[in-house]
Specification:
The complex is a heterodimer of chains A (about 525) and B (about 130). Chain A has about 525 residues and is α/β, with parallel strands linked by helices. Chain A is built from 20 helices and 10 strands. Chain A has 2 domains: about 375 residues, Methylmalonyl-CoA mutase (TIM Barrel, Alpha-Beta Barrel); about 50 residues, no CATH class. Chain A is about 50% helix and about 5% strand. The termini of chain A are far apart. Chain B has one domain: 3-Layer(aba) Sandwich (Rossmann fold). Helix content of chain B is about 45%, strand content about 20%. Chain B has 5 helices and 5 strands, in the order E-H-E-H-E-H-E-H-E-H. The radius of gyration of chain B is 13 Å and the shape is globular. The chains are: A alpha/beta (about 525), B alpha/beta (about 130). Chains A and B meet through helix 2 and helix 16 of A and helix 1 and helix 3 of B.
């Protein structure tokens, strides 16, 4: 497997001026890590280039993954379709028209086996964007590792498993908040004990930002979600330094270049103080906020789509200058559809150019000490602190969500932003300024309409061949565990190994936990 | 004074991305219309029933997941069955040009793609309802 642009970084400018690994004090790698979590940053390890991808059937997505790995991508990131994200199966009423559309359809262990065919899970780290059904999908991944002869301890990657931001922003929830939090904690507990190198949660601001929040709100709600998860894991009896080093974060990389960099710097500083001050963590790995970044999907325009390449490059540069550990760059055609192979290659090349040609990764926190960036870092932190204080006063994130607090703050910010665009106070090139008629067409990826039928057929055949008695027994045991408060993960694993479907397992849990409808606030 | 235009803003399908639906709902309300927002994950049946109950003149469907080809024809069919052909249907979201033409052939009054201005949408609804009345 080629490793692309991960070779060592040249520590000299093009004029041959030698470069230090950082300039000024305090040094990166020192508490509270405003300047980065490693002293040498990208000289030690470049960020992971991790393109989020998945579409149609697992077989087709597997081909895309193997292509991306050949092109020098260094980790995988699985995008699931909406039926999988919502815990239903191909052929269910609610799944009509959605199978394989926005991601890959994973209805059972058989699909997961096809997804990772010829991809060695001990060598390729895998990130999975799944939330309400996260325990089910994680169990399927573990079961594939078993079949590949890979031990749990060798597995690397990240499970999103962040339910709070679903209630706040992305709205893919199945159960009420409290049982959902219990499932999240089941996964964290199980992973802490058995899959020690895997990140069992990615506490995500990305979707909060995409829903229209400001950078300050993104930061504040994400860190407050993080506090909630820590409290639940402590309540479960885990020791803070036992699990906190494996908490990971996920932020947006949006247009406002300096504010984004300030946001990442403030995030590290705030989390270090929260973990040491609020939770008395002693292990310095617990203090260090590690994050993945993705450029802002909502900033991509339908008009003049090639402009999106430039937007993405600037956003990616902000994420790198802000010290991200891994990065997804959006493709220029994503305001239209899932990306074509050509577009996703260009997006990956954008990262490779920043890594290999720009010289930026040679020096950690290159903007540290800038009057502007330091002042913005402080101000973003102050304003985010203020939100965290208000949510603390409400009794935590769950009561805040129940009274629609973060949801309405975001809706308000998003409406304000849209108004400022309408009034041309904010310019979007190609949309409200420098508009062009006859832009010409770009080629977009067409999702094979056969995918839905293929997945339905596969599931029918699976139901004929598996032992339905074994499935029933496993689901009954799972329901019992869910009622008792025992960790559900071992039972979900049993159900998955018996080829119970994503929908069947999620429905079994819904029989115990109930479902959830939000109170929609305009 | 004219009675307020009544609009149902609906979010069909599994997708939870409601940023657009909420902004449109608010813009129409700020423009003086009576807006009912259904919330998430509405089936075509639920949407048409809500439109009937609320006696709206306009249904706005927000779809970003690519499922419009399955959902919109069903909504149009139900409206015909219930003799609600006079209700104006507009669709907003990620709808490729070719699909937009197909939706209009089904009787959709307008398709608003990404980047459409709020004022343009408000003007369209006012004009179209005005002509129908």
């Amino acid at each position: 497997m080629k490793r692309g642009a991960t070779e060592s970084i040249v520590a000299r400018t093009l004029s041959d001026i030698p470069l230090e690994s950082h300039y000024g004090t305090p040094a990166p790698g020192e508490f509270p890590y405003t300047r980065g979590i490693h002293p040498a940053m990208y000289r030690g390890k470049l960020w992971t280039m991790r393109q989020f991808s998945g579409f149609a059937t697992p077989e087709e997505t597997n081909r895309r993954y193997r292509y991306l790995l050949e092109q020098g991508q260094t980790g995988l990131s699985v995008a699931f379709d909406l039926p999988t994200l919502m815990g239903c199966d191909p052929g269910d009423d609610m799944a009509l028209g959605e199978v394989g559309k926005c991601g890959v359809s994973i209805a059972s262990l058989a699909d997961m086996e096809a997804l990772f065919e010829q991809i060695p899970l001990d060598r390729v780290s895998v990130s999975m964007t799944i939330n309400s059904p996260a325990p089910v999908i994680f169990a399927m991944y573990l079961a594939v590792a078993e079949k590949q002869g890979v031990r749990y301890e060798q597995l690397n990657g990240t499970l999103q498993n962040d339910i709070l931001k679903e209630y706040i922003a992305q709205k893919e929830f199945l159960y009420p908040p409290r049982p959902s939090m219990r499932l999240v904690t089941d996964v964290i507990e199980f992973a802490t004990r058995h899959v020690p190198k895997y990140n069992p949660i990615s506490i995500s601001g990305y979707h909060i930002r995409e829903a229209g929040s400001t950078a300050v709100q993104e930061l504040a709600f994400t860190l407050r979600d993080g506090i909630e998860y820590v409290e639940w894991a402590l309540e479960r009896g885990l020791s803070v330094d036992g699990f906190a080093p494996r908490l990971s974060f996920f932020f947006n990389a949006h247009n406002d270049f300096f504010e984004e960099i300030a946001k990442y710097r403030a995030a590290r500083r705030m989390w270090a103080h929260i973990m040491r001050g609020r939770f008395n963590a002693w292990d310095e790995r617990s203090w260090k906020l590690r994050f993945h970044a993705q450029t802002a999907g909502c900033s991509l325009t339908w008009q003049q789509p090639y402009n999106n390449l430039v937007r993405t490059a600037l956003q990616a540069l902000a994420a790198v200058m802000g010290g991200t550990q891994s990065l997804h760059t959006n493709s220029l055609d994503e305001a239209y559809a899932l990306p074509s192979e050509q577009a996703v290659t260009l997006a990956l090349r954008t990262q490779q150019i920043i890594a290999a040609e720009s010289g930026v990764p040679a020096v950690a926190d290159p903007l540290g000490g800038s009057h502007l960036v330091e002042a913005l870092t402080d101000e973003v932190e102050n304003r985010a602190q203020d939100y965290i204080r208000r949510i603390d006063e409400m009794g935590g994130m769950i009561p805040a969500i129940e009274r629609n607090f973060p949801q309405s703050e975001i809706a308000e910010a998003s409406y304000r932003y849209q108004r400022s665009v309408e009034e041309q106070e904010r310019v979007i090139v190609g949309v409200n300024r420098f508009v062009q008629e006859d832009e010409g067409h770009i080629e977009i990826l067409q999702i094979d309409q056969q995918a839905e039928q293929a997945q339905i057929g596969k599931l029918r055949r699976l139901r004929e061949t598996r032992s339905s008695e074994r499935v029933e027994q496993a689901l009954a045991a799972l329901r019992k565990a869910a009622e008792s408060g025992e960790n559900t993960m071992p039972h979900i694993l049993d159900a998955v190994r018996a080829y119970a479907t994503t929908g069947e397992i999620c429905r079994a849990l819904a029989q115990v936990f109930g479902t959830w409808q939000e109170r929609s606030a305009l | 004074m004219d009675p307020k235009i009544r609009v149902l803003v609906a979010k069909p399908g599994l997708d939870g991305h409601d940023r657009g639906a909420k902004i449109i709902a608010r813009a129409l309300r700020d423009a003086g219309m009576e807006v009912i927002y259904t919330g998430l994950r509405q089936t075509p049946e639920m949407i048409v029933n809500a439109a009937l109950q609320e006696d709206v003149q306009v249904i706005g469907l927000s779809i970003l997941s690519g499922a419009h080809g399955a959902i919109v024809p069903r909504v149009m069919e139900l409206l015909r069955e219930k003799k609600m052909d006079d209700v104006l249907v507009v669709v907003g979201g990620i709808i490729p040009d070719d699909d937009a033409v197909e939706l209009k052939n089904l009787g959709v009054a307008a398709v608003f793609q990404p980047g459409a201005a709020l004022d343009e949408i408000v003007r369209f609804v006012r004009r179209a309802v005005g002509t129908a009345a």
